Structures are given as structure tokens and as C-alpha cells.
Amino acid sequence: MSSRARTLAVCSALVIALLAVAAFAPLPFSIAYPGPAANVLGEHKGEPVITVHGAKARKTSGELRMTAIVATGPQVSAHLPQVLKAWFRRDEAVMPRDTVYPVGDNAEEVAKHNAAQMKQSQDAAVGAALRYLHRSPKDVQVDLELADVGGPSAGLMFTLGIIDTVDGDGAGHDLTGGHSVAGTGTITTDGKVGPVGGVALKTQAAHREGAKFFLVPRDECSDAQAELSKDMRLIPVTTLTGAVDALKALNSGGKVPSC
């Protein structure tokens, strides 16, 4: 064998070895998928998601669906073939692991963190809804139950669900107008809607459940449009009042904001 052939053989072997190492080396990414899209006006695992005390609960029609993503666990390593596969699929997304699991890779610690974020989100949703309805938390109490879902991104939909359960559109009609409306977004007690992650996957979760309208934080319009179904309409929002007004306009034939 000539020296050139030997050199090529050695180089080829090194390249193959490097590719093999790269293919099986753990990478700091998680693979995310469309998750649940529970109707906050309905029941979850046999229990009502929203229970009101101190005010008469309305009988509602339509749906208000919160949306979520699921991701590979904090201790599950993504490898190059998985990352490349997910990169080219519309129903998967590659996300930096530390954005999905900011508290580390301990499963118990992650679950505790997500539960705390959900509790904080629910408390903010109750506060924002009662403030919008001009009701005192001393007179009206709200219990929210949604097991197996963590994080803060259901805040907006929880808030709208409480408003629809207590007051509807303020004129005796459902806030949803009988439609299936999905969405995402954090909420503050003063009614500001904040951005979340994974909105392109969340629109897919909503479409899977038959939703035709999707409330999205305005700053994430372009992300939400990335994998949007042709029969789903995006409605951008920045505040709770804006979200309620958009739903009222949708049902009355008024002007509805769009991305």
C-alpha cells in the first residue's frame, strides 16, 4: 500500500470514529412534542377544573383549552440522530435543555419547580379574574384543579375560564360564543399577558383537539405561525382586557385582531 493510500485509510478511520462518537455523545438538548390541551371549562380526570364558591357558576358551552408541551426527561440525553430527526419534523422541536429544565436534572426537583410555577400561575389567574370582575376574594373563592400539568403558561386560559364561569361576556352569553378556543400565555394579577415557549407545538395540540381559534401573546405571533394549520386563526393579545374584547368581537362580528 502506498503512503498516500495509508494516509487516506487512516484519515477515513478517524472520520468514521469521530462520526461514531458524535452520534452517540449526549447533547444539551431536549426534544419537545405537542402536549395536552385540556378544556378549563370542563372536567379533568373526573373533576371540574374550575370550582367557584360565593358566586353562582354559569352553565357554559364552548371550550377554553389551555395548551402545553411535553419533552424528554431531564435525565434523558438527546443524541445527534434524534436532534437531526426532530429538526426536520413539524411535530417535534429541539430546545436547549436548560430552558426546559432551568432547575437542573433532578426529576423530583423539576416536578416541584413546575408545580410551584403552576400554583403561582393559578393564584395570579384567580386574582386577575376577580379584579376584572370587580369581585372581592373575600366574597368569591375559586379552586383550580389540573393534575399532571406544570409551569405558568396556562395563566391566561385559567383567567378567561373563571370569567366565563362567573360572568360570561357580561350580557348573559358565553365568552366563547360556543366556539372551541385554545391559547397560551402567562398572566399577572393586573392582567398583563406574557410570552411562553413552544407555541408552534401548542397550536398543533390545539388543532388536534379541534380548536379553531388560538390566543397567543403578540410577541410570539411569528413563532405561532410556523406550523399553523390553515383552518386555525391566531388572535394576538397583550392584556386580559384585550383578550376578552377580542372574544366578544369574534362572537358579535366585530373587528378581531390578527397576527
From TrEMBL:
InterPro entries: Lon_proteolytic, Lon_Prtase, Ribosomal_Su5_D2-typ_SF, Ribsml_uS5_D2-typ_fold_subgr. Residues 150-241 form the Lon proteolytic domain. The keyword Signal applies. Residues 1-22 form the signal peptide. It comes from the Bacteria. Keywords: Signal. This is Lon proteolytic domain-containing protein. It comes from Streptomyces olivaceiscleroticus.
